[in-house]
Design the sequence.
């Protein structure tokens, strides 16, 4: 169930931007696998603008008896605002210090991310970029420095991903993408090394919005829209999950194209699995409320509040399984909008306190 929750409620604190942002993973991406490529060499505009050299996160964890354990994260940037490395120190009650380190080195056409545990080399990921700075290859090496996974990416003349080939020692599957001239995705196919097409996701529909009743090798993903008098739009998307279950999403956007609500249904009984309601003020998100259901019963409830600068001020998640568990996170910021403190409470008991400090070039 936890995997399901993470798949549909994706709210992250974007540490590289140093400000809170609320991300959502689209239903289409969940069902058809993302066609996004990885990158390590992006410039952090906030770090570049304010000349941030590094910042530290001091973390104090508390158990039920009030005993504290300590850890420290330190993140480094270069003068161009690119992430260089992250070092983690942890201290258990036995006063044993462990160190984890993640280092990223960038060249013109390549980025290397290396992971170390107490000074010993661990796994490594290498990204290679083409002349347009798009990822053309992703290589993942295991602890013995052996190639564990390889992905090749090919792009069309518009710079959109057209082919993706995944290897795990041997070619496993290829994905092919086709687009309309206005860059909307038209078709996606998975092809085994033998050349056999295993699945096709077809995003073309008749004007009537053809609805497919059963899962087939070719899956129709259709969207119909209903335009309301107040300028709002109700959109209904139907398709099938990777394991053949029918699904339906219903979204409501206002006249400003702001997403007000989304509902996700799945299965032959059209069971409601997930819903979200978003509230705006001056065209800015001020709150997002999420509900997750299992067999018709509410199991998770999450409320996220933001200020008008887009920073999360509080995050409250309630689990309603055998015992009610309420986790609350509270955020504080400095005059530059950087987070300075984050407190985590479980059923109103402080379990973690994180303090952020910054250094500048």
Sequence:
């Amino acid at each position: 169930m936890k995997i399901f929750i993470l798949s549909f409620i994706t709210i992250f604190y974007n540490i590289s931007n140093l400000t809170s942002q609320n991300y959502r993973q689209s239903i289409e991406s969940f069902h058809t696998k993302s066609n996004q490529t990885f990158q390590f060499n992006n410039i952090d505009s906030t770090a570049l603008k304010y000349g941030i050299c590094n910042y530290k996160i001091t973390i104090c964890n508390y158990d039920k008896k009030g005993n504290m354990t300590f850890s420290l994260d330190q993140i480094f940037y270069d003068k161009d605002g690119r992430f260089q490395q992250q070092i983690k120190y942890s201290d258990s009650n036995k006063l044993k210090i462990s160190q984890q380190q993640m280092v990223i080195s960038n060249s013109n056409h390549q980025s290397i991310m290396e992971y170390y545990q107490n000074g010993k080399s661990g796994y490594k990921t290498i990204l290679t970029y083409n002349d347009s700075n798009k990822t053309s290859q992703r290589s993942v090496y295991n602890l013995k420095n052996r190639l564990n996974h390889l992905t090749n990416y090919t792009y069309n003349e518009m710079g959109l991903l057209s082919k993706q080939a995944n290897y795990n020692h041997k070619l496993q599957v290829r994905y092919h993408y086709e687009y309309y001239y206005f860059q909307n995705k038209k078709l996606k196919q998975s092809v085994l090394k033998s050349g056999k097409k295993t699945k096709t996701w077809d995003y073309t529909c008749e004007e009537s919005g053809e609805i497919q009743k059963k899962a087939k090798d070719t899956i129709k993903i259709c969207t119909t829209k209903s335009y309301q008098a107040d300028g709002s739009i109700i959109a209904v998307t139907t398709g099938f999950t990777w394991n053949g279950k029918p699904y339906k999403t219903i979204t409501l956007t206002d006249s400003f194209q702001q997403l007000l609500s989304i509902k996700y249904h799945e299965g032959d009984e059209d069971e409601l699995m997930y819903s979200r309601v978003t509230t705006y003020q001056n065209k800015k998100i001020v709150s997002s409320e999420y509900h997750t259901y299992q067999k018709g019963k509410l199991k998770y409830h999450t409320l996220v509040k933001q200020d008008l600068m887009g920073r999360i001020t509080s995050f409250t998640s309630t689990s309603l399984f055998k015992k009610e568990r309420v986790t609350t996170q509270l955020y504080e910021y400095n005059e530059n909008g950087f987070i300075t403190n984050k407190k985590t409470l479980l059923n109103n008991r402080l379990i973690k306190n994180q303090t952020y400090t910054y250094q500048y070039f």
